[in-house]
Write a structure and sequence with these properties.
Layout: H1 2-11, H2 22-45, H3 49-53, H4 61-79, H5 95-113, H6 122-150, H7 155-169, H8 178-203, H9 211-228, H10 241-274, H11 281-293
C-alpha cells in the first residue's frame, strides 16, 4: 500500500513536466496524497462506500490510474502549455531510456497486480497471467493500428501501448479470464490511441507524456471492462452482470469528478501560498536545452 501511495502522485508529473517549480511540486503531491489518494483508497479498499457498493478494483484502476490521470490533466491545464508547444518539435529525448522504463514497468506490474492478492494462490496466478496477456495484446493491437494509420509502427508507440495495456488490466486482473484480458487489451489500445492521436490535438492541451490519454482513459476503460468481461464466478452472490456494470459506471463517474475537483482546490490553495507555481521562462528554456544536449 505504501508503494501504491508513492507511485500514484508520481504518475502525474509526466503531464506537466518542465513546468512546475520543485518546492510547490513537493507540496502538491503531499497534499494530493492526503486529500485525494488516501480517501479514495479507503473508499475502495478500506471499507468505504465504493467498496461497500460493490465496485470492483483489484489493484487500482480507480484508485491509482483514474485519479492520477484526471488530476494530471487538470494540473497541466492549470499550469498552461510549455514554451514553444505546438511550434517546436518536442520528441522524447532518449528513446532507449523510454523502452527500458517500459520494460521495467512490465516486470514490476506483476508485483503491482498479482501482489495485490497478498498471497501465492490461484487468484494471484490468474492476475499474473491476465496482466501479461492484456499488455501483450495491447502492444500488438496498437502496432497494427499505427501501421494502418501512419504506414509503420513505432517503438515509442509499442512502449506506450504496453503501459496502456497494463493500466487497463489493473482493476480487472483477478476478475476476468485470459480471454477477457485479451478483450481488455484490444479495447484499451483503440481508446488510448484515439485519445493520444486525435483527442489531444483536437483540444490542444499539453500533456507531455500522455498521462491522461494512457492512465486516465486506460483506467476508465479498465474499470468499465471489469464489469463488461467479469467472469461469472467473480460476481458477488445475487448480483447480475448488468448490475455490476452499473456499479462500475457509478464508481467511474464519482472518481472522474472527485479527483479533478479536489486537485483544482489544492492548486488554488498552493497558488495563494507560493504565488506562481510555474517555472519562469528562462529556467524552463534552460532545462530543455540541457535535455537536448543529453
Amino acid at each position: 500500500q505504501a508503494m501504491f501511495a508513492i507511485i500514484t502522485p508520481a504518475l502525474m508529473i509526466g503531464a506537466f513536466a518542465e513546468r512546475m517549480r520543485f518546492g510547490p511540486y513537493l507540496a502538491f503531491i503531499t497534499l494530493w496524497l492526503l486529500v485525494v489518494y488516501c480517501p479514495l483508497a479507503h473508499m475502495v479498499w478500506g471499507g468505504g462506500w465504493l467498496g461497500a457498493m460493490g465496485a470492483k478494483d483489484f489493484a487500482g484502476g480507480l484508485v491509482v490510474h483514474m485519479s492520477s490521470g484526471y488530476s494530471a490533466l487538470v494540473a497541466a491545464l492549470f499550469l498552461g502549455k510549455r514554451q514553444g508547444f505546438g511550434k517546436d518539435p518536442m520528441p522524447p529525448h532518449n528513446l532507449p531510456f523510454a523502452v527500458i522504463g517500459a520494460s521495467l514497468l512490465w516486470v514490476g506490474w506483476f508485483g503491482f497486480n498479482a501482489g495485490s492478492e497478498l498471497m501465492a494462490d490461484g487468484i494471484a496466478s490468474l492476475a499474473f497471467l491476465t496482466t501479461s496477456t492484456a499488455a501483450s495484446t495491447a502492444l500488438v493491437t496498437w502496432m497494427a493500428i499505427e501501421w494502418l494509420h501512419r504506414g509503420k509502427p513505432t517503438v515509442l508507440g509499442a512502449a506506450t501501448a504496453l503501459v496502456a495495456g497494463l493500466v487497463a488490466i489493473t482493476p480487472a486482473c483477478a476478475f476476468v479470464t485470459p480471454m477477457g484480458s485479451i478483450a481488455v487489451g484490444i479495447g484499451v489500445s483503440v481508446l488510448c490511441y484515439g485519445a493520444v492521436t486525435f483527442l489531444k490535438p483536437m483540444f490542444g492541451y499539453d500533456d507531455s507524456l500522455d498521462v491522461f490519454g494512457v492512465h486516465g482513459i486506460g483506467g476508465t476503460w479498465g474499470a468499465l471492462a471489469t464489469g463488461l468481461f467479469i467472469a461469472p464466478w467473480a460476481l458477488p452472490e445475487g448480483v447480475s452482470q448488468g448490475a455490476q456494470i452499473v456499479t462500475q459506471l457509478k464508481s467511474i463517474a464519482f472518481t472522474a469528478v472527485f479527483a479533478p475537483a479536489a486537485t483544482i482546490v489544492i492548486l488554488l490553495v498552493l497558488r495563494a501560498i507560493f504565488g506562481s507555481l510555474r517555472l519562469d521562462e528562462e529556467s524552463e528554456t534552460a532545462d530543455r536545452s540541457s535535455l537536448e544536449r543529453l
